[in-house]
Amino acid sequence: MKANRLSGLLLFLILIATAFRLSARAAEPSYNGKPLSEWLLILKIGQTSAGERVEEADAKEAIRQMGTNAIPTLLHILGATDRNKWWVLSRLKSRGFREMYHNQNVPTDDLQDTGVEAFGLLGTNAIPAIPKINKLFGDWETCSPAARVLAGLGPEGVAALTNGLASKTDVIRGVTLWAIGEKSSMDSNTVARIMIASLKDPDVGNRDEAIRCLGGKDPVVVIPVLLPLLEDNKNYSYESVARAMSSYGAAAKVAVPKLLSLFTNAVVQKDRGAAKGQCLELMWALKGIDTEAAAQAEAFLANSGPLGANYGFTTTLLPNGKTLIAGGTLQTTIPTKKDYVFSSADLFDPVTRKWTKTGEMNVARYGHTATLQPDGKILVTGGYNLNGVGRQSALTSTELYNPTIGTWTVVTNK
């Protein structure tokens, strides 16, 4: 008897849940016989759940025609997270849409993006939704799609968006800066003022975002603000500052002496991997500001030993624990310079973390092979040199490195 009551109660709960789900789906608006989620599917893949091809323009027009009726469903989609995605999808009528996003390989971000695009199609019809979108904006899991929607809703949406600058959550402040800088309709001077104020943000990532968004703004206002930041490597990433400076071209020449100083310091540091990354950013900036200065930096790099080559060198671990770096090429993008090919060789000591020069190869080469011999010597074979600007010539010569005396001996010139 008790079991029958439990079975009846369970059946009742299932019926209630089913009725609730069906009523929720029934609330989804339709246009020309297709529910909103079906039009969203067409917007995404160009066909219906049944495989019927439909023009994207038709889907856009259908969403516009649904207007404010589409807002409740789009808010659910915009608020989808990894935790509630299945519930959000269960409320939608389109089988194809549900199946597409039930796939675990499709990130929730893609579902949110669909909501962002649809809100964009509603235009000013979406303004009544600002209070609820603003609520999603206050949640770190949904702040990014909500910020994009707010940025596109004119002065009212942007006003709500700027509230994120006062958030106690680093992620929300960062998303706000990105949305203001990249997506909003704010005038350039207002954006610049906001970004300059955000250079004091406690989060280093947000400070970098503010620096990035300052790129391309009024150079008279921004360059004097950015220049001192190159001196403060504790609070600011000089790579980010250099990249922003490069957006001003020749107008940022005042920064060249400091950029060259940072470049040379990066070249001679112990950490080869970090040095290469920093040199790449600084060289990119110098090329954007002053080609002659970039050529000067590149010449310094070419004569710097282990950092000179950026391609085609060999790395060989010696029996004594040191590493031999030999040859390679430095590929330049400066029109007045040709690529460098090196005969230089350097030794890295993992104990002292220092590089020291050793004897040079008899032939400059890159793309060669280096083979450790049983007696501890290194046999280098083949590779390429450059015969004239950009003309590659194959090498067949072989030479042997003796780590005991640090010299190279030609084995064959063939």
Description:
This protein is α+β, with helices and mostly antiparallel strands and 414 residues long. Among the domains are: 218-304, no CATH class; 314-412, no CATH class. The chain has helices at residues 2-26, 36-45, 56-66, 71-78, 85-90, 95-102, 108-122, 130-137, 143-151, 154-162, 170-182, 188-197, 204-214, 219-226, 238-246, 256-267, 272-289, 291-302; strands at 30-31, 34-35, 314-317, 323-326, 329-330, 340-341, 345-349, 354-358, 369-372, 378-381, 384-386, 392-394, 398-402, 407-412. A hairpin with a 4-residue loop joins strand 13 and strand 14. Helix 4 runs antiparallel to helix 7, helix 7 packs parallel to helix 9 and helix 13 runs parallel beside helix 15 (238-246). The longest helix has 25 residues, at 2-26. The chain is elongated, with a radius of gyration of 31 Å. The model is unreliable at 9-26 (pLDDT under 50).
Sequence-ordered SSE layout with sheet pairings:
Layout lengths: L1 H25 L3 E2 L2 E2 H10 L10 H11 L4 H8 L6 H6 L4 H8 L5 H15 L7 H8 L5 H9 L2 H9 L7 H13 L5 H10 L6 H11 L4 H8 L11 H9 L9 H12 L4 H18 L1 H12 L11 E4 L5 E4 L2 E2 L9 E2 L3 E5 L4 E5 L10 E4 L5 E4 L2 E3 L5 E3 L3 E5 L4 E6 L2
Antiparallel strand pairs: 1-2, 3-4, 4-7, 5-6, 7-8, 9-10, 10-13, 11-12, 13-14
